[in-house]
């Protein structure tokens, strides 16, 4: 297990999960009175991520889909998420008002552990060890919990221009990661 690999996995997941870019959505939900429990949202997202890490391949096997094919599909999803972040256009639509509790739907799923995150976790298996991915997931869960727990403070301290800039920076990183994943898995 290499520290550089753990850092790569952590940054890839951080970019895809995009907790900083999701902050405006989370703050809007809180403003509208949606009850968000940081621990419930974090634990639920963690269970989904770890379950998909360990059982995602078995699920794909049921449908006779190879991991490299799923990784290619994942690279395309990551590419479109990156485009959304950079260009401010929306390919993926969701209705955040569908849940009264807010902690599980839409925060844990699909905001934190959505299709992009789960696809990325499975795609990462083609390039990284399971332990490196687990550590990356745990590191991101700590970040997620910290951000969710401190949303009132962050609302006061982070101007919209700062969150917009961070979103664009991580979007460009995602585009580069998606292209690299596509190139790696195209010949597999």
Describe the structure concisely for a colleague.
This protein has 188 residues and is mainly α. It contains nine helices and no strands.
Explain this structure.
- This protein has nine helices and no strands.
- With 188 residues, the chain is an all-alpha fold.
- The chain has one domain (38-185).
- The longest helix is centred in the last third of the chain and has 26 residues, at 160-185.
Keywords:
188 residues; mainly alpha; globular
What is the helix tally? 9
Main sheet attributes: strand count, strand direction, barrel closure: none
Number of extended strands: 0
Rg, nearest Å: 16 Å
| Form type | globular
Question: Helix content range of the residues, please?
Answer: over 70%
Topology:
Layout: H1 3-17, H2 19-31, H3 38-62, H4 67-87, H5 107-112, H6 115-124, H7 130-149, H8 151-157, H9 160-185
Helix pairs in contact: 1-6, 1-7, 2-7, 2-9, 3-6, 3-7, 4-6, 4-9
């Amino acid at each position: 297990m290499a520290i550089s690999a753990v850092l790569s996995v952590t940054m890839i997941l951080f970019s895809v999960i995009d907790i900083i870019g999701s902050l405006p959505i989370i703050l809007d939900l809180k403003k509208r009175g949606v009850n968000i429990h940081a621990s419930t949202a974090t634990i639920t997202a963690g269970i989904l991520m770890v379950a998909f890490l360990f059982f995602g391949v078995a699920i794909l096997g049921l449908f006779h889909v190879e991991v490299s094919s799923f990784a290619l599909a994942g690279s395309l999803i990551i590419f479109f998420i990156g485009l959304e972040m950079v260009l401010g256009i929306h390919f993926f639509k969701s209705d955040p008002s569908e849940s009264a509790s807010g902690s599980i739907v839409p925060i844990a799923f699909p905001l934190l552990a959505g299709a992009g995150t789960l696809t990325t976790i499975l795609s990462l298996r083609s390039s990284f060890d399971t332990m490196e991915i687990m550590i990356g997931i745990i590191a991101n869960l700590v970040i997620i919990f910290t951000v969710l727990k401190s949303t009132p403070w962050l609302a006061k301290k982070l101007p919209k221009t700062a969150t917009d800039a961070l979103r664009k920076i991580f979007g460009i990183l995602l585009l580069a990661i998606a292209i690299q994943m596509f190139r790696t898995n195209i010949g597999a």
